[in-house]
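Schema walk-through. Below, the input block comes first and the output block second. Nothing else is stored per chain. Lengths vary across the set, and this one has 157 residues.
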Amino acid sequence: MKMSVQKAFLVLFVFVAFSCSKETIADTNIEAENIEVVESELLEIVNEYRASLGHSSLVYNSIAYEQANKHNDYMISKGNLSHDNFSARASTISVELNAEFVAENVAKDYFTANDAFKGWLASTSHKKTIEGEFTHTAVSVKKDSNNKLYFTQLFFR
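--- output ---
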């Protein structure tokens, strides 16, 4: 599937603009437990917030969910929050789903979906992503061995 030059430029821009840290290869075999109740709550909270602004609800996507899960496993293996390897996640979503723009929010150390959401709203860049012109999303929330929660939400259109 060929991408237009304009689309390729936009995808490249997104990779550069949103990849906050050095790219590394994920070298983990960790597969932490998903907290599906919190994932569902966070998606519902984000969609309710978007609706209150007159924006469309985000549609769940399983490919983005797989990418968000892998990223949470990676962050848990490293023990810290990061956007490492964002360009690889964005590229997978762009190629497999013909997405033109991909973004992500990450968080950790919150105890509830509402707390993570409030944390994102308090950050200008995270809030902008939540309010962005996206059509699809996936939310992964995983628990590490110390019962700390890690959150990754991917957005795309």
